[in-house]
């Protein structure tokens, strides 16, 4: 029976490291505050590569690891809240740079839940078509959206990209066992970046976009309540018990949020791998980066059951239960 399989995973970060110490010279903050409130020690910041450039590094690795040509890809989805431009989509730019000429390509905008939404969309599109292969990438250059004078957001985010290649194979078990996707548009104003201004464009063109703004405490409360609910809902839909989940790969926004969620689910913290200390919050890139790292480290094996769960702008939340 034909089912989907993840045939490669990859990630990339720009080379330039910015430590908490460096930020504490630029603004009124400290390594101690950032570490104890968030778990972040450093982040990678792009100096000259845009979002599609980071995605391209990942796309090339995905193809070479799976030993397939760009011409074999049917679908490319990039999840991002920091695209190169309003148009063309980052996925279209990536498609062109890869030379994946037959692939249909588009972006998904769901902030830090973007990769979960994108993976679901790719799975559904492959299952309902004769397409064979999809590339799903989360890529962000959040540093270009930040107000570097606002310590309440500037210290939290970083740049990077990660992704997976999905292909139809003869498999008895489906890749995605269950999903739970949620959007809370009434809380849309809790995380905002890149708002446009209407009415000031004629006759004089004003093209400035608003920088990143977040109601940190409210998002914290949202995440610690809604993410466990979403995970439980997906686990129930998969007809599993929580202790059958081998690893929980959560969006890397804050170490304390991850610890709270582990506690609420009554699951041991060693089932929750983290890289927030090294990367900071990379929004849609956070989960595929972590996924590819734990696979590269040999932590996750074929047959393991993984809960991938994200939350963020929208507000939004989502969980996928997958059998790797
Ligand atoms: N350095 C030093 N002090 C700071 C800093 C900083 N970088 N930032 C804020 N402070 C100060 C505040 O001004 C405040 O001071 P006051 O008490 O004198 O008013 C104090 O620290 C406490 O501020 P809080 O905002 O209440 O701090 P909190 O403990 O809530 O931590 C944080 C803030 C880390 C942002 C936390 O609320 C959080 O993680 N929220 C969730 C964010 C998140 O998960 N986002 C994910 C989605 S992002 C997306 O979708 C793209």
TrEMBL record:
InterPro entries: ACP_syn_III_C, ACP_syn_III_N, FabH, Thiolase-like. The keyword Acyltransferase applies. Its EC number is 2.3.1.180. Pathway: Lipid metabolism; fatty acid biosynthesis. It is an enzyme of class 2 (transferase). The active site is at residues 112, 251, 281. It catalyses: malonyl-[ACP] + acetyl-CoA + H(+) = 3-oxobutanoyl-[ACP] + CO2 + CoA. Transmembrane segments: none annotated. It is found in: Cytoplasm. Residues 252-256 are annotated as: ACP-binding. HAMAP family: FabH. Belongs to the thiolase-like superfamily. FabH family. Catalyzes the condensation reaction of fatty acid synthesis by the addition to an acyl acceptor of two carbons from malonyl-ACP. Catalyzes the first condensation reaction which initiates fatty acid synthesis and may therefore play a role in governing the total rate of fatty acid production. Possesses both acetoacetyl-ACP synthase and acetyl transacylase activities. Its substrate specificity determines the biosynthesis of branched-chain and/or straight-chain of fatty acids. The last Arg residue of the ACP-binding site is essential for the weak association between ACP/AcpP and FabH. This is Beta-ketoacyl-[acyl-carrier-protein] synthase III. It comes from Limosilactobacillus agrestis. The lineage of its organism: Bacteria, Bacillati, Bacillota, Bacilli, Lactobacillales. The gene is fabH.
């Amino acid at each position: 029976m034909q089912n989907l399989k993840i045939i490669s995973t990859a990630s990339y970060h720009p080379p330039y490291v910015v430590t908490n110490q460096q930020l504490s010279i630029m603004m009124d903050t400290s390594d101690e505050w950032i570490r104890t409130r968030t778990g972040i020690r450093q982040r990678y910041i792009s100096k000259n590569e845009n979002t599609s450039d980071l995605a391209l590094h990942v796309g090339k690795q995905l193809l070479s690891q799976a030993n397939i040509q760009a011409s074999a890809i049917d679908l490319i989805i990039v999840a991002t809240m920091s695209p190169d431009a309003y148009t063309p989509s980052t996925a279209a730019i990536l498609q062109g740079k890869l030379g994946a000429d037959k692939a249909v390509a588009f972006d998904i905008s769901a902030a830090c839940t973007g990769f979960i939404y994108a993976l679901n969309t790719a799975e559904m599109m492959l299952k309902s078509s004769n397409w064979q292969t999809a590339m799903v990438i989360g890529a962000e250059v959040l540093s270009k959206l930040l107000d570097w004078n606002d310590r309440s957001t500037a210290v939290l985010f970083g740049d990077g990209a990660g992704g997976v290649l999905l292909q139809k194979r003869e498999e008895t078990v489906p890749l995605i066992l269950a999903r739970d996707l949620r959007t809370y548009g009434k809380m849309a104003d809790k995380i905002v970046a890149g708002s446009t201004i209407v009415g000031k464009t004629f006759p004089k063109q004003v093209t400035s976009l608003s920088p990143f703004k977040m109601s940190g405490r409210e998002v914290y409360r949202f995440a610690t309540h809604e993410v466990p609910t979403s995970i439980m809902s997906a686990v129930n839909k998969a007809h599993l018990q929580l202790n059958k989940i081998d690893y929980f790969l959560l969006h890397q926004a804050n170490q304390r949020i991850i610890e709270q969620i582990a506690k609420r689910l009554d699951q041991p913290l060693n089932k929750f791998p983290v890289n927030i200390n090294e990367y900071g919050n990379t929004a849609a890139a956070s989960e595929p980066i972590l996924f590819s790292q734990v696979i590269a480290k040999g932590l996750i094996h074929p047959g393991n059951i993984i809960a991938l769960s994200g939350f963020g702008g929208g507000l939004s939340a989502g969980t996928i239960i997958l059998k790797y």
